[in-house]
Structure formats: structure tokens, C-alpha cells
Amino acid sequence: MKRRTFIGSSVAASVALVSNKGLGMENKKIVSGDFKGNINHSVCRWCYSKIPMEDFLKSLNELGITSMDLTGPEDWPLMKKYGIHASMCWGAGFGIEKGWNDPKLHDELIKDYLQMIPKVAEAGYTNLICFSGNRNGMKDEDGLKNCAEGLKQIMTQAEKYGVVIQMELLNSKVDHKDYMCDHVDWGVALCKELASDNFKLLYDIYHMQIMEGDVIRTIRDYHNYFGHYHTGGNPGRHEIDETQELYYPAIMRAILETGFKGHVAQEFIPSWEDPIAALKQGVSICDV
């Protein structure tokens, strides 16, 4: 499974159009220092896919980032070599567009997740991502029912192995047209239907800013249902600095106020000539 099919050629083109010079940051230096220890920092691998894995892991060691999102069993041995934790695993399912809202896929999905859950646990990890799938003309209430019926058949296994299945909230306005789990209310209703501590929502701040906004209030009201967070600058999904509309220090403080102990993963597409410097800046911004 490839993350957003690495977002596609259109995003790659947009990245090429945005340069350090265009942002006025070609000479910007990021001051290094120890993290405060309040936020468990992570980063999504797909955003840095042009950097060879081992080189990227070395960079994470240099930055002091100890976790990485959206990796599978093929990545884990090398990650362990460099002491990098897999904070959000993948490797089961059909990707974003084909998910648990389609009963025709349940047999294969159940088999796939039942095989993957023990692998995640045996590797020493906790979180495994899943997706609702696209609507394809289906009513939201029918999709919710279908997701619940399918996911219930893997929750006993997830609870047994201590693995948390996390469904990602994505926007259906810009990036993932027709995706069903595109509002917090729908996701929370699914959580309530499953009634398991081993099912949570992955709250992607970038995506939900596009769909709903009111990010801090949402975090405060629904944090019990959120098991993981992703960042990203809006509009454009680039750096999370002053070039975009979200103020991440306040968002991070709101997350901390809820008592959250999980991971916050950077999932912006670097536009700087030095993507590692951009990552360093993003983590520094979130280190409140």
C-alpha cells in the first residue's frame, strides 16, 4: 500500500513550484536543542520517500526523532537497527478508497487484519491504520453500519494482542474525493458503535481543518476518541510555519491539556530544498 499513492503527480508538480526562495526562507536556520519531552514526535515516511530509508533513519537519529509513521514489516528490521519506533503501522487492507464500508470486502479485510495484528504486536508496536473507503453512492448511515459489522470481527483479536485499530479522518473536499470518514461526528459514532478501547480515530489536523475547522474545540470535545494525530499546513499541505493558516503551538498545547500520551506525526510535504531542515522546523514548532 502506498500512502495516497504518494499523493500523485499533481502534488509533485505543486511541490516543484514552491521553493525556499519563494517562501523567503532560503537562509532560515533552525536552532537545534533538546525536546521538552511533552510531545512524542513522529514523522510520516511517505513524505520523505525520495530519501533512502537508511539515510532518513540516520537523519532522524541526528534530529532526536524516535518514531516513524506508516511503515510495514518490510521496514521494521532497519528501523529497529536505528532505534526508531513504528508509531503507526500499515500493511493490511486495500488502501484509502476500498475499506470497511464495503461488505463485499469484509472477508478479505478480516483475514488480512487478523494476520497483521499479531505481527504488529510481536514487533512491539501498538497502532494499525484502517480506512472507511469511499462512498460510491452509499449513504453514510449504511456505511457506518457496514464498518461496524466488519470491524467487530477483528476487535477481539486487537484486544487480545493490545493493538489499537485507528481509522483515519481524511478530507473529501481536496485530496480524497468521496471518502466516507470525513467528519468527526461520523467517526465518533463508529467508535461508540464498536465500544472498544482498541478502536480510535486518527485525527489528521490538516484534513479536518479543510472539512470542519474549529480544530482546538474539536480536540477538547472529542479527544477520548482520538488515538493519534497528524500535522500538515493548510492550504497546500506544506510546512506548518507562518506560511499557512493553522497555529500549531496552540493546537499542541490543546492536545497536551487533554492528557494525550500518544504520538504526533509530521505529515506535511516539504517544499524546502532541504527537507530535513523543514522537518526539524516542524518538530520544533510542535515541541511545546
List the helices and strands and how they pair.
Blueprint lengths: L8 H9 L2 H4 L16 E4 L9 H11 L3 E5 L4 H6 L3 E5 L16 H17 L4 E4 L9 H22 L2 E5 L15 H11 L4 E6 H7 L3 H8 L3 E5 L17 H10 L5 E4 L8 H12 L2
Parallel strand pairs: 1-8, 2-3, 4-5, 5-6, 6-7, 7-8
Mean pLDDT equals: 91
Could you give the count of β-strands?
A: 8
Residue share in β-strands = 5-15%
Low-confidence stretches: 4-33
Number of domains: 1
- For the largest sheet, list the strands in their spatial order: 1-8-7-6-5-4
Which structural class should the secondary elements be placed in?
alpha/beta
Q: Specify the CATH homologous superfamily.
A: Divalent-metal-dependent TIM barrel enzymes
Can you walk me through this structure?
The chain has 288 residues and is of the alpha/beta class. The chain has one domain: Divalent-metal-dependent TIM barrel enzymes (TIM Barrel, Alpha-Beta Barrel). The protein is 41% helix and 13% strand. The protein has eleven helices and eight strands. It has a six-stranded parallel sheet. Strand 5 (164-168), helix 7 (184-194) and strand 6 (199-204) form a beta-alpha-beta unit. The longest helix has 22 residues, at 140-161. The two termini are 33 Å apart. The model is unreliable at 4-33 (pLDDT under 50).
